[in-house]
Design goal:
With 185 residues, the protein is mainly alpha-helical. The chain is built from 7 helices and no strands. The protein has one domain.
Length: 185
């Protein structure tokens, strides 16, 4: 697999991450009105689609990072985000079905999403597939956001999703460095 495949993988991951974030923003703006859960089925469906697209984007980004030498951090990040998304969807389904909203499941989603973002940030710092500031910012954002949310200072459970959108934009903007035959050996 040469550079065109890497570029296609980067674009696929970037597209999924940016689209997922855009859907989350639309859902928050149209039905969020400052309170979650808002109890709207449309909002619930849009949030689920946005989270799943972000998950797929992170999985595609994991492939790009694996091709650049990361074998562990991005995979752990994808698994953490997957478990977090499942907890979010279960909590949302219980709430929409007339059950009780379980704030602990939302909290667990935030912690797992922050863990995922930190793991991807570490993989970026390790592989340098994106600028180092992106990886460093991801780690710092994940730690700060987790602390703020757990201390009930930060109230937006989807706050960690800003960073995958930045990953997506950078995957479009930042071009991979072409390797010469001498540097591949």
């Amino acid at each position: 697999m040469g550079p065109p495949t890497l570029l296609q993988d980067r674009r696929a991951a970037g597209s999924l991450l940016v689209t997922g974030f855009a859907i989350l923003v639309v859902a928050a703006v149209l039905y969020g009105d400052g309170a979650y859960p808002a109890g709207h089925a449309w909002q619930s469906n849009a949030l689920t689609v946005g989270l799943v697209l972000t998950l797929l984007g992170l999985a595609a980004f994991e492939v790009v990072l694996a091709g650049s030498g990361d074998r562990l951090l991005a995979r752990l990040g994808t698994i953490a985000y997957l478990v977090g998304v499942v907890l979010w969807i279960v909590d949302d389904a219980l709430d929409l079905a007339g059950g009780q909203f379980i704030s602990e499941l939302e909290r667990d989603y935030v912690v797992l999403a922050c863990l995922a973002i930190a793991a991807f940030g570490g993989a970026i710092l390790r592989t340098r597939i994106l600028p180092r500031w992106v990886g460093g910012m991801a780690v710092v954002w994940a730690v700060v956001w987790a602390v703020l949310y757990l201390e009930r200072i930060g109230k937006a459970p989807l706050g960690p999703n800003l960073i995958p959108a930045i990953f997506g934009l950078e995957l479009f903007i930042h071009r991979p460095v072409r390797q010469t035959p001498a540097s591949q050996a």
